[in-house]
Description:
By secondary structure, the chain is mainly beta. The chain is built from three helices and 17 strands. It has a six-stranded mixed β-barrel with strand order 3-7-4-6-5-8. Strands 1-16-15-11-12 form a five-stranded antiparallel β-sheet, with no helix packed on it. Strands 13-14-10-9-17 form a five-stranded antiparallel β-sheet, with no helix packed on it.
Amino acid sequence: MGFALKYGYSILCVAAVALLPAISHSQDYTCSRATYFGSPDCLGTPTGACGFGGYGRTVSDANVAGVSRLFKNGTGCGGCYQVRCKAPNLCSDDGVNVVVTDYGEGDKTDFILSTRAYSRMARPNMALELFAYGVVDVEFRRIPCRYSGYNLMFKVHEHSRFPEYLAIVLLYQAGQNEILAVELRQEDCKEWRGMRRAYGAVWDMPNPPKGAISLKLQVCGSAGVTWVQADNVLPSDWKAGVAYDSAIQLP
């Protein structure tokens, strides 16, 4: 199985622009509120709205979050943020770095954190007191995602049915990037076909072409909008539930 990495550039990241309500900023941080969701093991949920499945429970050592306005109809899935609470007697200076894996609305909150992520905003031995607040004032900023030892991976979603229905979800999306579109190569007619964003980070297509599958991503990042191509990234006998390494590192 061979891979190729190709880029194409445009000027503006227009498609990812969202109209957001006016909120206060502290330097490069945005002020908001955060709460947490309970789970028996303090991890994330495998049923999050991004469609990550088990990856959404444990990625980034389970420092994960559900978001509302930052979800952006699924474009925000996989984004990374530094979140730090603003009670100096309880909260650490660095806060916690989280990955967006779910959609969730709270009491004027931007983040509903996993129990583990919420506790990691606290100073040593102060987590229980922080939990007692339930909802805390925070400030946050977008940061690059970093996954040492991992390339971008294309997981064939468990609901896929070979060969008549293909759904994929993108894992280990590094950098400060958002996936705006996914296209699939139709070799018999030498053209690219757009996949549908089914929900969250899940893209699908009925009746995909036979043979090894090449995919092309429209990525919005610091360089504007780029196209990234992975040739033959899915084998001809792709299987539901299997994640395939793209050999691509998003910048």
